[in-house]
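re: that complex we talked abt at group meeting.

here r the seqs, copy pasted straight from the sheet so there may be weird spacing, ignore it
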Amino acid sequence: QVQLVQSAAEVKKPGASVKVSCKASGYTFTHYEINWVRQAPGQGLEWMGWMNPNSGKTVYAQKFQGRVTMTKSTSISTAYMELHSLRSEDTAVYYCARGTYSGDHWGQGTPVTVSS
Amino acid sequence: SYDLTQPPSVSVSPGQTASIACSGDKLGNKYVSWYQQKPGQSPVLVIYQDTKRPSGIPDRFSGSNSGNTATLTISGTQAMDEADYYCQAWDSSTYWVFGGGTRLTVL
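got the structure back, here u go
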């Protein structure tokens, strides 16, 4: 069965970076795009960007351009999202989701807390 | 930027039909998906490409998309359907855009 398993919760100080991983299993990793979505406490879903695991091509939401990097390691079927220059407003649960037009499978979420 | 608008809340009685609208400029020209999210859980896809249901999603969930409005309809609503619902649009220029979400209450 398809699974996306994300890394554990993180606590970071303002100005630091965080790197979240998303390990895929149950399908061919390079055949489906990976999207990253975040959800601040009590708020809605916010799309951050998209990566093609085959080509490595990325598309970032304008809001995050210059501050986010999405990468992959094909050998271990894992996608990564790194967010730099963290501020308190980046406190959220970060999800990876598989798919192009929609997310048919989602990771369990990685809580990231930014606090001094 | 492209915006999608949803009502913050919708209420429905058990067994009745719930409709949740999602509006955006020329939304009918984009693919629309709908997600259900319960507290503390990851979103679950319930409708994709406007009208299609993933395997395992009950057939009481249906979707439509035309003009500027997409609609998620839940027929014979059950208590277990109480959740937040998000619409999401896709096209090749904007990629993913989410609506603000609608809390469905089954009274």
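couple things i noticed - DSSP finds no helices and eleven strands in chain A. The CA atoms of residues 35 and 50 of chain A lie 4 Å apart.
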